Amino acid sequence: MNSGTLVGSLIFAAVLVVAIAVVIQVMMLGWRRRAQRQQELIGTLPPVPDEVGTATTTLRGVYVGSTMAPERNERVTAGDLGYRSKAVLSRYPEGILLERVRANPIWIPQSAIIEVRTERVMAGKVAARSGILAIRWRLPSGVEIDTGFRAGNRDNYDGWLEDAA
């Protein structure tokens, strides 16, 4: 390889690295701006109550994410709602508690729940045969969001869907 080709290749590689870095920075800026816009809409989430009754049913699985209702691909990025994580979903007479690994728990009061259903696609994730449990609920700010959960054993969804009716 002659020195002209080597220098040209190094310049091309440097420009490519800089271009990739700029694209990543623009993506991160877009994520932060979306989070700021959504934070104004969402406000604060309901706090987890100090005491609740006995859990009627519990599922282990993955928190898929939350989306702005009715758009199932408009992912909520405000706070830590945009991050997928392992989770435990528990149903109480007072509401639903979603305890996530390395993230704040999400409390959904019973009075805020609009519907519980299954979805095949949510927040950019695809599951087989309606494998995502979607909980549509109204935040204190009045905004409706869908919170998605994919259980390890999807056969246990029936109890969740019957309880919501």
From TrEMBL:
Keywords tagged on the record: Membrane, Transmembrane, Transmembrane helix
Protein name: Transporter
InterPro entries: PH_bac
Naturally occurring in which organism (per UniProt): Mycobacterium sherrisii
A Pfam family of this chain: bPH_11
Domain PH stretches: 42-163
Transmembrane segments: 6-31
